[in-house]
Amino acid sequence: MKLKISFFVFFITFCLKISGFTQSISLSKQDPDAKLKAVYLYNFAKKTKIKSNILPEYLIVVLGKTKMTEELKKIASTKQINSKKITVKEINKFEELGACNLLFVCKDFKNQSLTELPKLQNILIVTEIEGLCSSESIINFIYKDSKIQYEFSPKNASKNNIEFESSITNSAKEIIQ
């Protein structure tokens, strides 16, 4: 009897672990580059000087639902930017946006109006929507040769009063004028 109960407990535990494992695999399939993008964002933030940075913390706002938010929160739990604690907030509507240092716009918003983006000042705007770097965003993630890379707009950075270390501009796959 004890053997049957032990086997039953083992079997249930095994099934739960397998189920959790497959769930984590399906989450990573949603955005296999989530961790890499989060590291990129952290490095962009570290190598950026925002001229009117008055917030007591470094606030990263993610517009849309993405696995990257969790990856950013992991980074935020152990790192700082310019001696400031990093806070990560996820919002679902542009109207929810308040003051922040970095705004990441998910590809889910590619069919929505983002006409407010050019009006934002002193915010590092990073997107993953094709074509936005020519008009609104400062940095846009792109895929080239099946690798995640980014394009950079010095014009949009200047409009937003943001300066970058040369390593950011030198590493960009494309410079958008």
List the defining traits of the structure above.
disordered N terminus, eight-stranded mixed β-sheet, single chain, 177 residues, 5 helices, alpha/beta, Rossmann fold
Give a concise summary.
By secondary structure, the protein is an alpha/beta fold. Helix content is 36%, strand content 25%.
Account of the 3D structure:
- The chain is of the alpha/beta class and 177 residues long.
- It folds into two domains: 1-30; 31-175, Rossmann fold.
- Helix content is 36%, strand content 25%.
- The protein contains five helices and ten strands.
- The chain has helices at residues 2-30, 34-46, 68-76, 154-159, 166-171; strands spanning 48-50, 58-63, 80-81, 84-91, 102-105, 124-127, 139-144, 147-152, 162-164, 174-175.
- The protein has an eight-stranded mixed beta sheet. It has a two-stranded antiparallel sheet with strand order 1-9.
- It is globular and about 35 Å long.
Kindly report the CATH topology of the largest domain. Rossmann fold
Strand proportion: 15-25%
| Biggest beta-sheet profile | 8 strands, mixed
Total strands: the figure is: 10
CATH domain class name of the largest domain: Alpha Beta
Using the 3D structure, state the CATH architecture of the largest domain.
3-Layer(aba) Sandwich
How do the strands line up in the largest sheet? 3-4-2-5-6-7-8-10
Number of helices: 5
Q: Report the structural category.
A: alpha/beta
* Overall residue-averaged pLDDT value: 82
